[in-house]
Amino acid sequence: MAPMKVVVAVPARLESSRLPRKVLARIAGKPMLQHVLERCQKASTPDAVVLCTDSIELQKLALEWGCSVAMTSADCASGSERIASVVDHLIALVDGVSSDTLVINVQGDQPFIDPCAVDSMTMEFCSRQPTPDVLTPVYRMAAERIHDPDVVKTLVSANGNAIYFSRAAIPHVRGVPPSEWHAHTSYWGHVGIYGYRADVLQRWLDLPYSPLEKVEMLEQLRLLEAGIQIGTFPVEGESLSVDTSEHLAIARRKAVHYVPGQEI
Predict the structure, then answer these.
(1) Domain range spanning residue 118?
(2) What is the number of structural domains in the chain?
(3) Does some domain include residue 263?
(4) Going by fewer Cβ within 10 Å, which terminus of the chain is more open, N or C?
(5) CA 28 to CA 255: how far, in whole Å?
(6) What is the pLDDT of residue 2?
(7) Residue 241: what pLDDT?
(8) Residue 246 region, left (φ>0) first, then alpha (ψ -120 to 50), else beta?
(9) Considering the domain boundaries, does residue 244 fall inside one?
(10) Do the beta carbons of residue 52 and residue 83 sit within 8 Å?
(11) pLDDT at 161
């Protein structure tokens, strides 16, 4: 079997609903998206880092920053769908084939993404036999984060596969005040990075409509409803995704003291 080719695909758009043009918000003197792309380029395992966007403005900036760009439709419903729409181009870019190309989806709103996290995804993916369909990192949650709807929780089976993702606290601890749930079971948070075998992304647009994806607004539920397994692996700490003005303020404060390799 040929060595696996690795592409980091960063989906980004300007018209985000909660914080429009957030990927161009400046953090420590640079647009947030530039931080993401530069950190991904510092990882040692990817063969290419590609911005996937429908924005001519973002395309021009990314090219100035020395990053490849794949233009997409403006009608993509999620980041994964945006990447899926150009997956054949991504495979060709690294001279791969669908069954031996790993596409790592890093969101454009994660300005503190650690290059080591990208490399860990590659190593974890390549070490597993059979090769996973999809893989994603999870972290053990602190008690004060369990009931935050902005934090996605993951229910994990004994074999490490994801059972479900939700913005609600899962599992529900019956007969116990919610403030005490953390003392009765472990809660896992989801780090918004996905490793896809490229042929899974090639099937994305043919997957059936997902009611769970619609109500939770979580794209990975489309995969679970279609019967596609999502493997997980544990990491230390969570990474910051900037979804609101409050998150942006946190990112700007953290950037002053940020040390590479430190998850925040």
Answers:
(1) 5-257
(2) 1
(3) no
(4) N
(5) 6
(6) 55
(7) 82
(8) alpha
(9) yes
(10) yes
(11) 97
SS3 191: coil
Mean pLDDT by 10 residues, the chain (264 residues): 85 84 92 94 96 97 96 93 96 92 95 91 93 95 92 95 96 96 95 94 94 94 96 84 83 70 41
What is the Cα–Cα distance from 186 to 175, expressed in whole angstroms?
17
Residue in this structure with the two tokens 């790993």, named with its chain if needed: 102
Sequence-separated (6 or more) residues with CB below 8 Å from residue 254: 112, 240, 264
CATH number of the domain residue 204 falls in: 3.90.550.10
pTM score of the predicted model: 0.91
Long-range contacts formed by 158-164: CB under 8 A, 24+ apart: 160/231, 160/232, 160/233, 161/229, 161/230, 161/231, 161/232, 162/136, 162/138, 162/220, 162/224, 162/229, 162/230, 162/231, 162/232, 164/221, 164/224
Q: Is residue 11 part of a domain?
A: yes
Cα 51 from Cα 59, distance rounded (Å): 8
- Residue linked to tokens 């100035």: 64
- One-letter amino acid at 64 equals E
Structural contact between residues 209 and 225, judged by C-beta atoms closer than 8 angstroms: no
C-alpha–C-alpha distance, residues 229 and 135, integer Å: 9
User: Does residue 264 belong to any structural domain of this protein?
Assistant: no
